[in-house]
Amino acid sequence: MREIANDVKRWLANDEQIVLATVVWAEGPSPRPPGARMAVTGSGQMAGSVSGGCVEGTVFEQAQLVLAGGAPHRLRYGVTDESGWEAGLACGGVIEVYVEPLADVHCRLLEVLEAEETIALATRLDGRGHLLAWPDGRLEGDRSLAPLLTGLFPGPAAELRSTPGGDIFLQALPPPPTLVIVGAVHIAAPLVELAQTVGFHVRVVDARRAFANRERFPTADELIVAWPQDGLQADRLGPQHHVVILSHDPKFDLPALEIALRSRAAYIGLIGSRSTQAKRRAALREAGFTEAEMARIHGPVGLDLGGREPAEIALAILAEIVAVQHGRARERLIPPRPGDDRSRTLTE
């Protein structure tokens, strides 16, 4: 829903009629997971995707039928002969898509997501209603659906549930993951942009005002001019946080590492050559950190993609974070070639 939020809000401001298409079930190698959405307007505009391009054309046509007054309905797409003309998924998977008019509940959902609250949405797939639920027990909509949503928190989660009253699509949407960048260096600028592209809320922390300013980081969600020990708190870094330390200076690196290692952050990355990594670990060892605790540090940070330009290094860092998010921690997807000195790539 966040992927299409800006477009939907713009269309609403222009009094457009809008239909939502949502992937409610998937099996096999489907291009988009349950919860993926596409929005279609009466004027023919589109945003988002339900299949990465395979069936968007036919879903668009079905959306026009709903815009013309047709009932909400489910569509099913499976494998098709790539040389044929019918719509289908060439990847071999199967998906079901629910097409419905944009309702008040969806507008309310957009408000909640913009406020970065955790929220869950239940949708009856016969068109008879929805429910919004918050972790604190607040409910808006069809309260009879509430028992189905309580087990989904904190999310993210998306599933199709069959009940005696019909099929219900359930989705829990936590706030977006947060990338905390310590060090407003030149690599940080493309990293901010790339991370925001894939849905991260991005916080940049640096005590140097000449580095940490809006001229250099115009799109950063948060720009904190402070030393790490003042701008970071271990108890406020949880599983949704990913910390990348780019300062390449022990005055910044060590306080940031100590705070991150005392937190529940999902990812801790440190830039610098192998010798720099060894020095930082030696200092952490003296500060009382164990080898098991320091094993959480990804350093030199990033996957070995071979690039040396700032944007390429930023891509390598973000690629490793995404790999960790999807359970690929500790796997170097592209191992260094014999004789390569990976430390030369991910240093400043």
**Helix percent band:** 25-40%
Count the strands? 16
Mean pLDDT, all residues: 89
Determine the strand fraction and express it as a percent band: 15-25%
Distance between the termini: 37 Å
Structural class: alpha/beta
Largest sheet: 6 strands, parallel
Low-confidence stretches: 81-87, 331-348
Tell the overall outline. Answer: elongated
- By DSSP (H or I, 4+ residues per run), the number of helices equals 10
Structure, described:
Helix 7 links the parallel strand 14 and strand 15. Helix 5 (188-197) crosses helix 10 (310-325). The chain has helices at residues 2-13, 56-67, 104-114, 146-149, 188-197, 228-231, 250-261, 274-286, 291-294, 310-325; strands at residues 18-27, 37-41, 46-48, 73-77, 94-101, 119-124, 130-133, 139-141, 157-163, 166-173, 178-182, 201-205, 222-224, 241-245, 267-270, 297-298. The longest helix is centred in the C-terminal third of the chain and has 16 residues, at 310-325. It has two domains: 2-173, no CATH class; 178-344, Rossmann fold (3-Layer(aba) Sandwich). The chain has 348 residues and is of the alpha/beta class. The strands form three sheets. A six-stranded parallel beta sheet has the order 13-12-11-14-15-16, sandwiched between helices. A five-stranded antiparallel beta sheet has the order 3-2-1-5-4. It has a five-stranded antiparallel beta sheet with strand order 8-7-6-10-9. 28% of the residues lie in helices and 24% in strands. The model is unreliable at 81-87 and 331-348 (pLDDT under 50).
